[in-house]
Specification:
five-stranded parallel sheet, elongated
Length: 400
């Protein structure tokens, strides 16, 4: 496994890679520490692949996943008839890793009685299979890993001090993801490719969503990020994803709380924003106009005069109706003129359309700036632009 499998170009990761290359040349025991999900097994693989044992086997064993009554047989092997169910000889993981590397993951979960036996194996460089009275010499490079603080475990009596020092000859620490946020974008791109639907291109994340991912503390580290990208790839295969496109329940708790708080604090809280639908690249373009709800720097929408007959029928009133007069009357607090031929719903729609037109003109057609002027969500504004057919006005740039 190449060091390229450890994704990132931050100084933290570059230092880790340099340390791996140096430590790999030794046969001394390595203790890899770090939080869960930080890639300790990747480090162990790299240590093996860059060592002189690379041509031999890399044998992993999770010390916390094996039942207590089976772990001795799993590590050291047994002979036929050694106990009930031992119907044949069985090689242990130490023998399987002969001349190669044995990776003892979650070594902090090893029971105390097995810690004593492991210490003896590391000292004597031999194993005694259960039911055998003949030791087997081993030539194995041991790499152990744990997410626990073994010094604290030693102080509390849950881990043997002599075994700790026997393992901690060459210490390597994997950094948590929150300490290297500059690597998040590269990791997202990597896992988007890994989890992409075979018939779809990898998903893409909007600038806003990437900003939120950078500010999230990632308690589950790289494993959590990988799982999240797998979830997004399943929900939105081949799409470009906005932050507001994602259902809150599909986000980690920290991001979910921020999204819900943002929705509650938004000025348009009485009219909850509706996430813009995800569309394909082909349907995202309408002639010369592109409205990307994920892009805060979208091209300005240039407004031109519109033939009223091109607007949606349900928002049209009499030909002599001018919604500006209603806006002036509302601003001055004077009663609105009686227009029995215009239902309330149509009048409100005309007022809304006119306000959006004026705000777009004030913002020189920039959608994001218009949304800020109107104090509504950008995706909501784009839906209303489409609803009132305003996007048709931008097919040809204005020459005014």
């Amino acid at each position: 496994m190449s060091l390229d499998a450890i994704i990132g170009r931050s100084e933290t990761i570059l230092s880790l890679k340099r340390l791996i290359e140096s430590v790999a040349q030794s046969d001394a025991t390595v203790l890899v520490t770090g939080e869960s999900g930080t890639g300790k097994e990747l480090v162990a693989h790299a240590l093996h692949d860059y060592s002189q044992r690379a041509a031999k086997r890399f044998v992993p064993v999770n010390c916390g996943a094996i039942p207590k009554d089976l772990i001795e047989s799993e590590l050291f092997g047994h002979r036929k008839g050694a106990f009930t169910g031992a119907i044949s000889d069985r090689m242990g993981r130490f023998e399987l890793a002969q001349d190669g590397t044995l990776f003892l993951d979650e070594i902090g979960d090893l029971p105390l009685d097995m810690q004593v036996k492991l210490l003896r194996v590391l000292q004597e460089r031999s194993v005694d299979p259960i039911g055998s009275n003949k030791p087997i010499d081993i030539n194995v490079r041991v790499v152990a890993a744990t997410h626990k603080d073994l010094e604290l475990e030693v102080q509390t009596g849950r881990f043997r001090e002599d075994l700790y020092y026997r393992l901690n000859v060459l210490p390597v620490t994997t950094p948590p993801l929150r300490d290297r946020p500059e690597d998040i974008a590269a990791l997202c791109e990597h896992f988007a490719r890994v989890h992409a639907n075979p018939n779809k291109r990898p998903i893409e994340l909007s600038e806003r969503l990437m900003h939120e991912l950078h500010s999230y503390p990632w308690p589950g580290n790289i494993r959590e990020l990988s799982n999240l990208m797998a979830r997004f790839s399943a929900l939105f295969p081949g799409k470009s994803i906005c932050y507001t496109d994602i259902p809150a329940m599909m986000l980690p708790k920290g991001l979910r709380d921020r999204l819900l708080e943002g929705a509650a604090d938004a000025p348009a809280a009485k009219d909850p924003p509706v996430p813009a639908p995800l569309v394909s690249d082909e349907s995202r373009h309408t002639d010369n106009l592109t409205l990307d709800p994920c892009n805060d720097e979208s091209e300005p929408v240039h407004l031109e005069a519109v033939d009223a007959s091109s607007l949606m029928p349900e928002v049209l009133g009499p030909a002599d109706y001018n919604p500006i007069e209603d806006l002036i009357a509302l601003a001055q607090g004077t009663p609105l003129p009686a227009l029995d031929s215009i239902p309330l719903k149509q009048r409100i729609a005309e007022l809304e359309k006119t306000l959006i037109e004026q705000a777009l003109q004030q913002a020189d057609g920039n959608v994001s700036q218009t949304a800020r002027i109107l104090a509504i969500q950008r995706t909501t504004l784009i839906e209303k632009i489409n609803k009132y057919n305003l996007k048709a006005q931008a097919d040809e740039p204005s020459t005014a």
